[in-house]
UniProtKB/TrEMBL annotation:
Signal peptide: none annotated. The keyword NADP applies. This is NAD(P)-dependent dehydrogenase, short-chain alcohol dehydrogenase family. Belongs to the short-chain dehydrogenases/reductases (SDR) family. Keywords: NADP, Oxidoreductase. It comes from the Bacteria.
Length: 243
C-alpha cells in the first residue's frame, strides 16, 4: 500500500465529481478519475494534471459489471490500493417524473445508477478499502432523499420538486448507506452520505445556486474525516440532515 492517500471518484469528468477530484488532489492525494466516456475522461485527467493533481484515468460505467470489475483491477495495478471511494456518479433518470406522469424507465434508470451503481462499485472496491489504514466511503446523496423533508408540508424543510424517481432513489441510497455502516461497524471503514446543496451543473440545467466547488465541499469533508469521525450519517455543509 502506498503511503499517499489514494482516492477514486466516480462521475468525476464534470460537475461536483470533478471538483471533488480537484479538491482531494490539492491535498496531495493520488486521484482516480472515474468516467464512463473515454474522451471526457481523457479531457478531465489532462485538465486536473495541468492543475497539478496527480490524477489517473479509470474508465468506469457504474451500471456495467465488467467495467466496474476492470476499474477495481486498474486501481490496484495503477495505485496499489484504495483508501477513499467517493460514489458521486448520479442521474435524474429524466424529466418529467411527477406522480401521475412518469415513465417507469425513468425510475429504473435513476435506481440503476444512483443505487445499484453505488452498490456495484462499493462491492468491487471493498476488498481494496479493507486493506487501507483509514478507509472512507462517501455516497453523494441529496437532501431531496430525506423523508423528513419530502413529507414536510410547508416551510424551510420542504424540499425539491415532485419526483418519483430521483428523490426516492436518493432515499434508497441513504438506506443503503446505513446498511453498509451497520455491516462495517467494528471495522475502520467510515461510510456517510452527503448532500452538496442545489448546485449549478448539467444535472439541473445549471439552475443550481451553488458553484460546483461549493457543492464539492461536503464530499471532501466526508472523504477526509478523522479516524474517530462519524459513520452511517447524512450531512450537508450546515450539519446533519434529518433522515
Ligand atoms: N447538482 C445538484 O444540485 C445536486 C444536488 C444534490 C445531489 N447531487 C448529486 O451530486 C452528484 C453529482 O452530480 P452533478 O450535479 O455534478 O451532476 P453532473 O454534472 O450531471 O455529473 C454527473 C456525473 O455522473 C456521471 N455518470 C452518470 N451516469 C453514469 C454511469 N452510468 N457511470 C458512470 N458515471 C456516470 C456523469 O458522466 P457523463 O458526463 O458521462 O454523463 C457525470 O460525470 C450526483 O450523485 C447528484 O445526484 C447534485
Amino acid at each position: 500500500m502506498s503511503e499517499r492517500t489514494i482516492a477514486l471518484v466516480t462521475g468525476a469528468n464534470k460537475g461536483i465529481g470533478y471538483e471533488i477530484a480537484a479538491g482531494l488532489g490539492a491535498l496531495g492525494w493520488r486521484v482516480g478519475v472515474g468516467a464512463r466516456d473515454e474522451q471526457r475522461l481523457a479531457e478531465a485527467v489532462a485538465k486536473l494534471r495541468a492543475g497539478g493533481v496527480d490524477a489517473f484515468g479509470v474508465p468506469l460505467d457504474v451500471t456495467d459489471d465488467a467495467s466496474v470489475t476492470a476499474a477495481a483491477r486498474l486501481v490496484e495495478t495503477e495505485a496499489g490500493g484504495l483508501d477513499v471511494l467517493v460514489n458521486n456518479a448520479g442521474v435524474t433518470g429524466g424529466m418529467p417524473q411527477h406522480p401521475g406522469d412518469v415513465d417507469l424507465a425513468t425510475i429504473r434508470t435513476a435506481v440503476e445508477v444512483n443505487v445499484i451503481g453505488v452498490v456495484r462499485v462499493t462491492e468491487a472496491m471493498l476488498p481494496l478499502l479493507r486493506r487501507s489504514a483509514s478507509p472512507r466511503i462517501v455516497n453523494m446523496s441529496s437532501g431531496v432523499g430525506s423523508l423528513t423533508r419530502q413529507s414536510a408540508s410547508t416551510g424551510e424543510d420542504q424540499t425539491g420538486p415532485l419526483s418519483v424517481a430521483y428523490s426516492p432513489s436518493k432515499t434508497m441510497l441513504n438506506a443503503v448507506t446505513i446498511q453498509y455502516a451497520r455491516a462495517l461497524a467494528g471495522t475502520n471503514i467510515l461510510i456517510n452520505a452527503g448532500c452538496p446543496g442545489f448546485t449549478a451543473t448539467d444535472l439541473n440545467g445549471f439552475r443550481g445556486v451553488r458553484t460546483p466547488q461549493q457543492g464539492a465541499a461536503i464530499g471532501i469533508r466526508l472523504a477526509t474525516l478523522p479516524d474517530d469521525g462519524p459513520t452511517g450519517g447524512y450531512f450537508e455543509d450546515a450539519g446533519v440532515i434529518p433522515w
